[in-house]
Give the backbone structure.
Amino acid sequence: MTHKCILHIVTSVDGFIADENGISEFSFAAVKADPEFKTFYDSVSSVVMGRKSYDRIKMNSGNLFKDKDVYVITHYLRQKEENITFVHENIMGLVQNLKKQGKGHIWLLGGAEITNILLKEKQIDEIILTQAPFLLGQGTRLFKDDNPTEKLVLEGVRTFGDYVQTHYRLK
């Protein structure tokens, strides 16, 4: 089995992952509504996220994936907490090493800066994008303007509740 780095994330219809205050309440609702999320979650051994995503999740649920190895990309040095490792350098090396370890897939949870770095470095293998029924107009846009052109292969489309989810493989 090939272990992949999978961006699985929720956006507004206009492409934002959080509003101008960094709030993304619609993300938590979408995950709760997704009947297939547990199957995805069970395929993952590691979760990679940015510090802002980490802070949001910790504030909302407190439970940071106790059964997974969690890596938080941050500019600040911090001590390891239980299953959480704070990484402040060499994100490419981290993702490459996790793929080689072969425990399971890597869930790239966010945020936008990390996503765009890994996209440019061709480290993202799949994108599972759930669109929430919101137009935010401003906030944190998932994809930046300076990303390379990428050909995506559609793996599937499904709906659940008011959400539309597209699953792509990068060529």
